[in-house]
Write a structure and sequence with these properties.
Blueprint (H helix, E strand, L loop, with lengths): L3 H30 L7 H8 L1 H4 L11 H6 L3 H12 L8 E4 L6 H8 L3 E6 L2 H13 L6 E5 L2 H4 L7 E4 L24 H9 L5 E5 L5 H8 L8 E8 L2 E9 L11 E3 L5
Parallel strand pairs: 1-2, 1-4, 2-3, 4-5, 6-8
Antiparallel strand pairs: 5-7, 6-7
This protein binds 7-methyl-guanosine-5'-triphosphate and S-adenosyl-L-homocysteine.
Length: 265
């Protein structure tokens, strides 16, 4: 038990732990340098999830307050990206991310070989998204745009459109049934109508308590109705959100198909 071999292993493990802690402290300092109070109580819970949000968090990932509670967990974003990358016959698909935040989804789309146009209305978030994309080495595959998705939409084209709009903050959980009118900055129907002008291949990232009948109704806004699929997104055993796929990106034909993707990290 006290052999030199075991001792060496213990020392190595201790060194690894120390290095990991140091990197984490450096990441904290960088956040502080930029004036972000990452110890605010509302953010503490997401800070504990930081490696499921960004596996490379310790390399210096930057996140602001809204980003903490909105960023898509990396394993779920990777599943979205795998679906977009599989769009048949499109080689290297062009994916538009209309509400890109600090880049959680855009980075995963780019990592799967998609070209991405990442739009966010908040210039600080776009700055963080550029920085974070560099950490993952995918900044060359993303065009970052600071702007209002609703103004830009009529000029945008792409093979797929990813929509992860604000849900109104963590209090979205207070609703027994989250209806689409609660999405921000416009209701879900308006967002979807606009989205359809860009492409029928739409991915919507929605609260786990969203009214699924309303989500299915979105597919009927097209004639003929769009193919439609619902995916329940987990991290480990916890349900985090719902993803709705529309058009060619949906695996199933029209109808409410509740499948569990069992995405884990
Ligand atoms: P959560 O329910 O706030 O966290 O968000 P958690 O850790 O599941 O809460 P718990 O107290 O039940 O443990 C779950 C996930 O939903 C987040 O990691 C984000 O990916 C996503 N999410 C949450 N909010 C409030 C938003 C939002 O406003 N917009 C978007 N696009 N995603 C959000
Ligand atoms: N999927 C992202 C998180 C998106 S959070 C990630 O994984 O990092 C929703 C984002 O929508 C916020 O960053 C907010 O700044 C942005 N937003 C709000 N209104 C917008 C608008 N009109 N146009 C573009 N972006 C908007």
């Amino acid at each position: 038990m006290f052999s030199p071999k075991n001792r060496k292993r213990r020392v190595t493990r201790r060194r690894q732990r120390r290095r990991r802690r140091d990197r984490s402290v450096q990441a904290h300092s960088r956040q502080e340098e930029r004036g972000f109070d990452f110890f605010s109580p509302s953010v503490a819970k997401y800070w504990r999830q930081r490696y499921s949000l960004f596996s490379r968090f310790d390399d210096g990932i930057l996140v602001d307050e809204e980003g903490w509670y909105s960023v898509t967990p990396e394993a779920i974003a990777a599943a979205h990206a795998a679906r977009a990358a599989s769009l048949a016959g499109r080689g290297c698909p062009l994916v538009l991310d209309g509400f890109a935040g600090v880049g959680g989804n855009a980075i995963q789309f780019a990592s799967r070989g998609c070209h991405v146009v990442a739009v966010d209305i908040d210039p600080r978030k776009i700055g963080f998204a550029v920085h974070n994309a560099k950490i993952y080495g995918v900044e060359d595959r993303i065009d970052f745009v600071t702007g209002d998705f609703f103004r830009l939409a009529p000029r945008l084209k792409g093979d797929a459109l990813f929509l992860s709009p604000p849900w109104g903050g963590p209090s979205y959980r207070d609703f027994r049934s989250y209806t689409l009118d609660l999405l921000k900055p416009r209701d879900g129907y308006s967002i979807f109508q606009l989205a359809q002008q860009i492409t029928p291949n739409i991915i919507m990232f929605l609260p786990c308590n969203v009214n699924l009948n309303q989500v299915e109704e979105l597919s009927w806004l097209s004639s003929p109705p769009l193919k439609f699929e619902i995916e329940v997104n987990h991290v480990e055993t916890k349900v985090k959100a719902i993803t709705a796929y529309f058009g060619d990106i949906a695996a199933r034909s029209s109808g409410l198909s509740k499948i569990c993707s069992g995405v884990t990290s």
